[in-house]
From TrEMBL:
Location(s), subcellular: Cell membrane; Cytoplasm, Cytosol; Endosome membrane; Golgi apparatus, trans-Golgi network membrane
InterPro entries to which the protein is assigned, alphabetical: GLTP_sf, Glycolipid_transfer_prot_dom
Similarity remark: Belongs to the GLTP family.
GO terms for cellular component: cytosol; endosome membrane; Golgi apparatus; nuclear outer membrane; plasma membrane
Membrane topology reported for the UniProt record: Peripheral membrane protein
Protein name: Ceramide-1-phosphate transfer protein
GO MF term set: ceramide 1-phosphate binding; ceramide 1-phosphate transfer activity
Stretches assigned to the Glycolipid transfer protein domain: 27-169
Gene name per UniProt: Cptp
Keyword terms of this UniProt record: Cell membrane, Cytoplasm, Endosome, Golgi apparatus, Lipid transport, Lipid-binding, Membrane, Nucleus, Transport
PANTHER family, per the entry: CERAMIDE-1-PHOSPHATE TRANSFER PROTEIN (PTHR10219:SF20), GLYCOLIPID TRANSFER PROTEIN-RELATED (PTHR10219)
Length: 207
């Protein structure tokens, strides 16, 4: 793979190491996984900038927390939630860790649905339709109408499924599908744990 190219293998590796035996989600690998997903979005061109720009900003905020004075509180999602709720940061801090991760979490759902749609699709499946359906079932809810409209138009320019699978940089379309089959359960797992944690603490609707 060329330097700076997206590799699905890297995403898999990051999300695989994300979840501890105690079912905690480690923020380090989570953000690594996101950095790879952002490279994926960039490799698809400017049409996804409405998601990737936001994700880049959110990852940056989280990396600052992970390197900051309170970094031991930001080792896992669980420790972050506990800390921010206990100190009232969630309410006062516009870019609290919880609010920032929630934005990434919502975008992760869309990517998860989209990649799953690519994995299970037929050779002649239209990626634009897979992408639109995934978007409508997830992120669209949180976007204003004008963004949704622009996104739907942009999806029409996506390459065909096989070209897409080659962007994954893991070999043939068949190998890409196999790798997606390995990567998606790891992403689903991280998504599920986060969803449950945020639901439990009523954080899913943070403005």
């Amino acid at each position: 793979a060329m330097a700076g190219a997206f590799s699905l293998r890297e995403v898999l590796a990051a999300f695989q190491t994300c979840v501890t035996e105690r079912r905690e989600v480690l923020l380090g690998p989570y953000l690594c996984g996101w950095r790879e997903l952002i490279r994926f979005l960039h490799s698809l061109g400017a049409i996804f900038s409405f998601v990737s720009k936001d994700a880049v900003a959110k990852v940056q905020i989280m990396e600052n927390y992970c390197r900051g004075e309170q970094r031991e509180k930001y080792v896992s999602l669980q420790s972050m939630v506990e800390y921010e709720l206990a100190t009232g940061l969630v309410d006062v801090q516009k870019d609290s860790g919880c609010r920032t991760v929630l934005r990434l979490h919502r975008a992760l759902r869309w990517l998860q649905l989209f990649l799953e749609g690519l994995r299970t699709g037929q050779e002649d499946s239209r990626t634009s339709v897979i992408c639109r359906d995934s978007y409508n079932a997830s992120l669209a809810t949180y976007h204003p109408w004008v963004v949704r409209k622009a996104a739907t138009v942009a999806f029409c320019t996506l390459p065909p499924r096989n070209a897409f699978l080659e962007i994954m940089n893991v070999g043939t379309p068949e190998e890409a599908v196999a790798m997606l089959g390995e990567a998606l359960p790891c992403i689903c797992d991280v998504y599920g744990i986060t969803q449950e944690l945020f639901a439990q603490h009523k954080l899913l609707d943070l403005p």
